[in-house]
């Protein structure tokens, strides 16, 4: 099972897709162009601070709002390794898996601070500040999609097109 | 054990006898809606496939509604990409016709259908007894190529409606009150089913907004049984039901709520969350800079009539922009015939063509730093309608219009 460590950036409840990627930047030609504006209504400086491998830890209902797939796409493009939240909005959940972005449901936000480093064993547990938090296993079909990097590459693999 | 409406529709679409909450089924989709918010991305992904193919183009409906008329070279190019692709492949394509969900309800949706839309407010179609749900463009692409997708059968929250609404109180107040009660994720992954004797007194327009805003409580869809009101609407629009479902008496609900419509008050959702509820009277006097009467939630004839009744013979307050945006061409034409658009224009409103407008914070009417918008739109998230430091209050058509006249949040008097 996959194992990695990442620096934590914390966020609150109800982080909506307009915060993750505001409407005014959706017309930009590519997700790469949108990266500097991710989370800008809430934390305009954040996108410039994030480094590949960092993780987001948040409260309930992460990704609520619109179905814009640019939201998980831009988070992935920024190199975020995974999002740990108390709960995820359903369209965002599907969109994230379909883009190969790992989501973990946990109340970790109640136990950590920004800047902490967490150690994740996918499907098993998270360790941070000496404490261990169990996390749910992922169904095999979702793991297959995540491992391939998203739904389209997973279908390609399955159909023998890679 | 009996089945809920959600379970029955999914069972039909999956070609099985029964479906139960929590099961995952592969379903054939009746329609797949997409709009100019994301279709260009779907086309890019489609063109990158090794064997691009559309299972059944007659099941795709594409609507340009988010930026109409387009406001930049970038949106012109993305709309051209969508238009050309749709024409080449015989996909039903609309622009200037109205907001996608209004167009779907007016022209396509039939009771019993299962419909995906690349837009979160696809949950609206329960107003005609169909299961609509929002997806992103990768799920849309998969559905477009295969004609199918997978769905987890949702649990159902049942709302038993009784009584009738007071004058000046609308279905928007009902759904905002419910969201305020259960929270912005109170129905996450679930279906919200509205039923009970109170439903008979609600028009398709009222039912539309109840289902439309279900996603603001996190719901997968909003649903309703089919009754005479539904059948009359279908008849008037030249369509027949595919299948008429209601939940069985012994169906299992995750939760049942009783809602007495006669007790509902005019409410607002305060910035920056749809569940941040207050009575209009609690925020009355808050200075506004713009008012918006429109969107797929509340840009229908009933809303325009209500607004016109409030503003007739009065003027929009000095320094306030009042945008009136009918949700479809049919609504626009009918409102023009009834003299409603004249009433708004004479009062000093700005009447615009059917489109999503400032509800999604692009194209028309975006607000600047520190400005306050009162809106019949769908969301009031931080920055949703413009500057990151602006403020959106959601309210019904009467409150929005009364506020446009007062220059501050005000309750309409009838």
From TrEMBL, chain A:
Domain Aconitase A/isopropylmalate dehydratase small subunit swivel residue range list: 56-105
Family annotation (InterPro entries): Aconitase/3IPM_dehydase_swvl, AconitaseA/IPMdHydase_ssu_swvl, IPMI_Swivel, LeuD, LeuD_type2/HacB/DmdB
GO MF, one example: hydro-lyase activity
Keywords for the protein's UniProt record, in alphabetical order: Lyase
UniProt cross-references to SUPFAM superfamilies, sorted A to Z: LeuD/IlvD-like
Membership in a protein family: Belongs to the LeuD family. LeuD type 2 subfamily.
Protein name according to UniProt: 3-isopropylmalate dehydratase
TrEMBL record, chain B:
Ranges for domain Aconitase/3-isopropylmalate dehydratase large subunit alpha/beta/alpha: 18-282
Coiled-coil stretches: none
One BP annotation, GO: L-leucine biosynthetic process
MF GO annotations: 3-isopropylmalate dehydratase activity; 4 iron, 4 sulfur cluster binding; metal ion binding
CDD domains: IPMI
Keywords assigned by UniProt, alphabetized: 4Fe-4S, Amino-acid biosynthesis, Branched-chain amino acid biosynthesis, Iron, Iron-sulfur, Leucine biosynthesis, Lyase, Metal-binding
Record-listed [4Fe-4S] cluster binding positions: 296, 356, 359
Cofactor list: [4Fe-4S] cluster
Record pathway: Amino-acid biosynthesis; L-leucine biosynthesis; L-leucine from 3-methyl-2-oxobutanoate: step 2/4
Cofactor: binding details: Binds 1 [4Fe-4S] cluster per subunit.
Assembly and binders: Heterodimer of LeuC and LeuD.
Matching NCBIfam families: hacA_fam (TIGR01343), IPMI_arch (TIGR02086), PRK00402.1 (NF001614)
Job description of the protein: Catalyzes the isomerization between 2-isopropylmalate and 3-isopropylmalate, via the formation of 2-isopropylmaleate.
Name this polypeptide is given: 3-isopropylmalate dehydratase large subunit
């Amino acid at each position: 099972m996959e194992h990695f460590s990442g620096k934590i950036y914390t966020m609150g409840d109800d982080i909506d897709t307009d915060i993750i990627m505001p409407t005014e930047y959706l017309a930009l030609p590519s997700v790469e162009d949108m990266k500097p504006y991710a989370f800008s209504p809430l934390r305009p400086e954040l996108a410039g601070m994030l480094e590949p491998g960092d993780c987001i830890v948040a409260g309930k209902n992460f990704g609520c709002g619109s179905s814009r797939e640019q939201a998980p796409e831009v988070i992935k493009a920024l190199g975020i390794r995974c999002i740990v939240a108390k709960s995820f909005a359903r369209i965002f959940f599907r969109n994230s898996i379909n883009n190969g972005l790992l989501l973990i449901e946990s109340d970790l936000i109640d136990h950590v601070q920004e800047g902490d480093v967490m150690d994740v064993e996918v499907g098993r547990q998270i360790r941070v500040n000496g404490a261990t938090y169990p996390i749910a296993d992922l169904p095999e079909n979702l793991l297959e999609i995540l491992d391939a990097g998203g739904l389209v590459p997973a279908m390609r693999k399955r159909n023998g097109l890679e | 054990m009996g089945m809920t409406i959600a379970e029955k529709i999914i069972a039909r679409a999956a070609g099985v006898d029964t479906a139960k909450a929590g099961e995952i089924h592969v379903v054939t989709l009746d329609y797949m809606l997409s709009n100019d918010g994301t279709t260009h991305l779907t086309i890019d992904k489609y063109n990158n496939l090794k064997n691009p193919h559309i299972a059944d183009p007659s099941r795709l409906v594409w609507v340009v509604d988010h930026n109409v008329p387009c406001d930049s070279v970038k949106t012109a190019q993305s709309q051209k990409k969508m238009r050309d692709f749709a024409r080449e492949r015989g996909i039903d394509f609309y622009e200037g016709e109205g907001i996608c969900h209004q167009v779907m309800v007016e022209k396509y949706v039939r009771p019993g259908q299962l419909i995906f839309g690349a837009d979160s407010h696809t949950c609206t179609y329960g107003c005609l007894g169909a299961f609509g749900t929002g997806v992103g463009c990768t799920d849309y692409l998969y559905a477009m190529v295969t004609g199918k997708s997978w769905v987890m059968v949702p649990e159902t929250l049942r709302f038993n409606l009784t009584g009738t609404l007071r004058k000046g109180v609308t279905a928007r107040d009902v759904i905002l009150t419910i969201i305020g009660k259960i929270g912005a994720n109170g129905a996450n992954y679930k279906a919200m089913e509205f039923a009970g004797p109170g439903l008979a007194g609600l028009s398709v327009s009222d039912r539309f907004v109840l289902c439309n805003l279900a996603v603001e409580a996190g719901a997968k869809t909003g649903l309703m049984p089919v009754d005479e009101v539904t059948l009359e609407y279908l008849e008037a629009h030249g369509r027949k039901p595919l299948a008429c479902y209601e939940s069985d008496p012994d169906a299992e609900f995750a939760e049942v709520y009783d809602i007495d419509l006669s007790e509902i008050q005019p409410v607002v959702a305060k910035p920056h969350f749809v569940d941040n509820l207050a009575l209009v009277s609690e925020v009355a006097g808050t200075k506004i800079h713009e008012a918006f009467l429109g969107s797929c939630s509340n840009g229908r004839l009933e809303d325009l009539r209500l607004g016109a009744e409030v503003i007739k013979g009065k003027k929009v307050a000095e320094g306030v922009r009042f945008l009136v945006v009918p949700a479809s061409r049919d609504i626009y034409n009918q409102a023009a015939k009834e003299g409603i658009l004249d009433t708004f224009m004479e009062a000093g409103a700005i009447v615009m063509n059917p489109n999503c407008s400032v509800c999604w914070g692009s194209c028309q009417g975006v607000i600047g730093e520190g400005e306050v918008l009162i809106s019949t739109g769908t969301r009031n998230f931080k920055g949703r309608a413009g500057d990151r430091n602006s403020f959106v209050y959601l309210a019904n058509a009467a409150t929005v219009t009364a506020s446009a006249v007062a220059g501050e949040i005000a309750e309409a008097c009838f």
